[in-house]
Design goal:
Elements: H1 3-19, E1 25-29, E2 40-45, E3 50-55, E4 59-61, E5 68-74, E6 82-88, H2 97-106, E7 108-109, E8 119-125, E9 128-139, E10 152-164, E11 167-176, H3 177-192
Antiparallel strand pairs: 1-2, 2-3, 4-5, 5-6, 6-11, 7-9, 8-9, 9-10, 10-11
Length: 195
């Protein structure tokens, strides 16, 4: 193993060890050397023993509920802020990918009031299957089927469902369409970087 790769492994192990000791999630700045991109923080998702590289421009917030492992405000540069949330409900909890996709779809309508079709994709991350779901339209966000909150026009929901051996990890980014579009590649890079 070359010295650059060795240094990278040591830095990643140090970041994991520094952040995995407490419950919930801890954030450690990523090194600006050793091949780790300088504008990322490593987030430890300790119940699942996973880490995710999160852009430092996203603002860490205290989780609003015990079902949220982590949450971040995504600045919208005048377009309105978005939010990224890591949900974990436990092994066998939270419903299937298909049931959740149907629920998210039920909360969206097009400008003329018609249903919105989800854009669904599939990939592998660290050997685990991931399903991505993306919807854009008028969004009435809620926990159950159908609209629950106040309808917000021109919104996007982008979700990655990571199927781990300990249960599904749901990573959501939602907010104004322009804000989500501007952060879409960073979100997907974060998902692909989960280890």
């Amino acid at each position: 193993m070359g010295s650059g790769k060795c240094r990278l492994v040591i830095l990643i192990i140090a970041a994991v060890l520094a952040t995995a000791s407490g419950p919930g999630v801890t954030i450690a700045p990523a090194s600006q050397t050793g091949g780790i991109p300088p504008k990322l923080s490593i987030v430890s998702l300790s119940p699942l023993r996973l880490t995710a590289p999160v852009p430092t421009g996203w603002i860490s917030q205290p989780p609003a509920s015990s079902m949220r492992l982590a949450q971040f405000q995504v600045p919208g540069s005048g377009q309105g802020d978005g939010e990224v949330i890591f949900f974990y409900f436990g092994q066998g909890q939270g419903g299937s990918v298909e049931a959740n996709t149907a629920r998210w779809q039920s909360q969206f309508t097009s400008p003329d009031g018609k249903p919105v079709k989800p854009n669904v994709g599939h990939l592998k991350v660290s050997g685990m299957p991931v399903t991505t779901v993306e919807l854009t339209g008028t969004y009435a966000r809620g926990m159950g089927m159908g609209p629950a909150g106040a309808p917000q026009p021109d919104q996007t929901l982008l979700v990655a469902v990571l199927e781990t051996t300990q249960g599904n990890l749901y990573i959501q980014m939602h907010g104004p369409r322009a804000t989500v579009a501007a952060n879409r590649e960073a979100f997907l890079a974060m998902v692909r970087g989960i280890q």
